[in-house]
Specification:
The structure is a homodimer. Chain A is of the alpha/beta class and about 375 residues long. The first copy, chain A, contains 14 helices and 8 strands. Chain A folds into 2 domains: about 120 residues, no CATH class; about 240 residues, Rossmann fold (3-Layer(aba) Sandwich).
């Protein structure tokens, strides 16, 4: 007798261990941004050993990397076999998403990490063939940063200078995946999206320590955007998610006068105590900050804590989960008091970091608000 | 002391009970087709009573309906509050998806069912404002069926008659949700999509018994398409999913000469024994077939079983899960032998009905194949 194969499903023990991550894996339904399908998760988690579910361990995420790399490679094979532009595009989008999850929380080998991140980039750019999305690449020699200006064909064809939103990565997001997904709401509203990668962000993650003092990068980017005839440099907004939300608060404080509004998705003025960071976050911060394995980053966290200071020269919106264990809500309450009517705080009582169960509705409402603020006042 | 609210998550007991359904809930990442976000599922399943998880019961699906109706209403409220076309479109897409899951497996009250299905329709059509998708509605007075021809603006602007794929619903799918999602792969490849609703399908579900002998409807639709200058009536394909895949096999046999190829996603020549149908399927079939509660549909199933007969006048592709408990694979093996080189059978050993973990890759490959078959031979 031959054995009947078992039905493919996300195993219950994996859902139990990783349930917190599912809203991140699914993120936002998107048009250009790579996104996995449920079956990709099922295939990646199927047969995962039950005895190695320590999410703080390198071992878990190394196995995870192998499994998502397999998914990615099955998508690149699908792309190669496809005889249509649309087929290759969709398959490469699947590959880009799977490569992102492959490198997610993997920090063992910088070369492997960077190769995976490069593959996200290559697959994503390949997936844009045949779409109406146009990517204009630029670099910021002063600070070593890079950026993309994203517009659709129809937006460029209008010939008018466009309002724009500048979007910042968090610590472990991919420019092509989460930041691209966030950008789509703006593109749909006729707003150009500027995706930048400062030191330690995107492809630069693990190459140079992430720059928490990101203001010089944003200042250089602003200089550049002012010389760009396609962009209406007096109609700019800034938004960031997670650590990018923290950066958004810094930008609001230091460069607020250049932006009509600033949005902070899930960041806060202070990171939680390093010692108490759950899951893989200690190593995540160590990797991004270029610290040694085992290093205590509390002194660095202390330096980075933002004193609210006087209210910024722009309107700021923060959206936060009351159960956030990375940027505790308390810091935002203090900042909200200090910044008074220049700051709005939206707190979701049952949400954790970046309120991912609600991302579809809060990004929609936020994009509507930003659209209103960026309207042509001429 | 106030109680700390619990973090919102899909509860483990709900994942355990409903895990089989998650690939259906997430289906295909789509651009126009309504699709839920993970957080919608979390909100719908949060706090679901642990003592009523009998998926064969009306009680479970009635509660399920209430919860998804709440989700849908939160999306319609979001649409009303939105000040942008893009915001309303995205919110209405969310509402349409949630209304579909609300009516899913709910059969208690035909009026409620039909109202929910009408809302899917209204929200979906509303969500197309500002997109480039154009819907041309038509009706088939002879058989009481209706259809949509879907094209993008760019496809219509070409002025050339377009190849087209005719897509059929299954028993409990929604034209606007699953069938629309399947249509997108064709639109991306420059192929018009014709979505029809025969008696008992789509908005007609529960109004008239589903017509298993769907060939006269398809024949009337073919007549109509031949008079449509925008459609190249000699470049047609037919595809259906689940019960629509069964219908596709009938169409291949009776009307094969009108289609360059026919695709059967997860259907088969014979339905499993009525007595042994799992979960809510007995009531699902009873509702669609207009049978009394408690009725035994085995005699009807016996009538409907397709004898393969001689090979059809067209090329047929069937994609099936070896663990399918609705259309058992054995029937397809018989048909595959009988139809010989006019039939290709792709069997996925670890997949159940409609192989939903693999839907992204098999729909991509199938759309590529259909594109090749529909190429202009002139």
């Amino acid at each position: 007798m031959t054995e009947t194969p078992e039905r493919l499903r996300v195993p219950e023990h994996m859902y139990r261990a990783l349930g917190y991550l599912f809203p991140r894996l699914m993120f936002l339904n998107a048009r250009y941004a790579p996104q996995v399908h449920w079956g990709d998760i099922a295939a990646a988690l199927d047969g995962f050993p039950t005895d190695d579910l320590d999410l703080a361990s390198a071992g878990f995420w190394n196995l995870w990397r192998e499994r998502w790399t397999d998914r990615a490679e099955s998508y690149t094979a699908l792309a190669e076999a496809s005889g249509t532009v649309a087929g290759r595009s969709r398959a490469l989008r699947g590959a880009a998403a799977a490569y992102h999850w492959a490198e997610f929380q993997y920090f063992d080998d910088r070369t492997v990490k960077q190769r995976l991140r490069q593959r996200i980039r290559d697959c994503f750019l390949g997936s844009l063939a045949g779409t109406d999305l146009q990517v204009t690449e630029g670099s910021l020699p002063g600070t070593g940063a890079g950026y993309w200006v994203l517009r659709t064909e129809a937006m460029r064809a209008s010939g008018e200078p466009l309002p724009a939103v500048v979007l910042s990565n968090g610590l472990d997001s991919a420019t092509e995946v989460e930041v691209m997904a966030l950008a789509e709401a703006y593109l749909e509203r006729g707003i150009a999206a500027v995706l930048f990668e400062g030191p330690g962000q995107g492809l630069r993650l693990g190459r140079t320590p992430v720059l928490a003092e990101m203001e010089p990068v944003v200042a250089e980017l602003l200089e550049k955007l002012r010389t760009e005839p396609g962009i209406a440099a007096d109609r700019l907004a800034f938004a960031g998610i997670s650590f990018g939300g923290y950066l958004a608060l810094r930008v609001a404080r230091e460069l607020g006068e250049h932006f009509r509004c600033v949005v902070n998705f899930g960041g806060g003025p202070a990171i939680a105590k390093f010692d108490g960071l759950p899951r893989r976050l200690k190593d995540n911060f160590r990797f991004a900050f270029g610290a040694e394995p085992g290093a205590d980053l509390q002194p660095r966290f202390d330096e980075l804590a933002i004193e609210p200071g006087p209210a910024p020269a722009t309107e700021v919106l923060s959206i936060s989960g009351a159960l956030d264990d990375i940027f505790p809500i308390e810091g935002l309450y203090d900042l909200d008091r200090a910044w008074s009517d220049r700051h709005s705080l939206e707190v979701h009582p049952r949400e954790a970091h970046t309120s991912l169960n609600l991302i579809n509705s809060y990004t929609l409402r936020t994009a509507d608000l930003v659209t209103e603020r960026l309207a042509d006042r001429a």
